[in-house]
Every structure is written in C-alpha cells, then in structure tokens.
C-alpha cells in the first residue's frame, strides 16, 4: 500500500496546483474587468470628444456670414489649433484603447495557458488513479 499512498500524495499535490491555477484565472479575470471598465471610460471620452468636435465645426458654419479680422482669427483657431488638438487627443485615446486591447489579449492568453495546465494536471490525476487501481488489484 506504500506505493499507492505516494501516488495519493502526488494526486493531492496536483489538486493543489489546480487550485492555484484557478486562483490565477480569477485574478486575471478581475484584471480584465478593470481593463474593460477603463476601456469603456476612454470610449465615452472619445465619444464626448467627437461631439465637441462636431460642435466646434458647427460654429464655423453658424458664423459663415461673419466677416473681418475677428472672424479670420476665430476660423484659424478652430481650424488650426482646436481641430489639431482634437485629432491629437483622439489619437492618444485610440492608442490607449489599443494598449488596453493588447493587455486584455495577454490576459486571455494567460487564462488559456492556465486552463491548459489544469487539463494536463487532470489528465495526470486520472492516470495516477488508474495506476493506483492496478496496484491495489495486484495487492489483492
């Protein structure tokens, strides 16, 4: 029976590793949820930015009958600095979204890796139970 008791200890060890993998998966899932929330906030900011950009463009149309140096200064500001600023900020938001998507993909990969380890450990456990059964049969 001493051979089988060693195998039972090995099974316990594998089960502990499975539990650790499950804890890792839960941590990765929590991180993913935080990233998804951050991504949603950034997307909302991007939507707000788009609305503001449309409003700024609309003011250019609203003032089309306006003439003079103040109009030209206003147009230069809106078409130049303001629109450029909107584009720059939009690009930054897109980069942030892309980085978050990459981080989520890395976490998905880690979750998949942990699930693969769990499957391998379960396979080893099943093989050990088969070996235990054959040892116990031989002892009878």
Automatic annotation (TrEMBL):
Pfam family, one: YwqH-like
Gene3D superfamilies: Helix hairpin bin
Coiled-coil segments on the chain, per record: 11-48
InterPro entries in UniProt: YwqH-like
Keywords: Coiled coil
Name of protein: DUF5082 domain-containing protein
Organismal lineage: Bacteria, Bacillati, Bacillota, Clostridia, Lachnospirales
Gene source species: Lachnotalea glycerini
């Amino acid at each position: 029976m001493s051979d089988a008791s060693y195998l039972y200890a090995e099974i316990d060890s594998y089960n502990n590793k499975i539990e650790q993998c499950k804890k890792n998966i839960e941590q990765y899932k929590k991180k993913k949820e935080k990233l998804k929330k951050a991504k949603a906030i950034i997307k909302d900011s991007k939507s707000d930015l788009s609305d503001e950009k449309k409003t700024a463009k609309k003011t250019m149309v609203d003032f089309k009958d306006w003439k003079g140096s103040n109009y030209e200064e206003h147009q230069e500001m809106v078409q130049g600095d303001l629109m450029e600023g909107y584009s720059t900020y939009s690009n930054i938001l897109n980069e942030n979204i892309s980085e978050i998507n990459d981080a989520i993909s890395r976490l998905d990969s880690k979750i998949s890796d942990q699930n693969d380890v769990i499957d391998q450990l379960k396979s080893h456990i099943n093989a050990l139970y088969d070996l235990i059964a054959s040892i116990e049969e031989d002892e009878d």
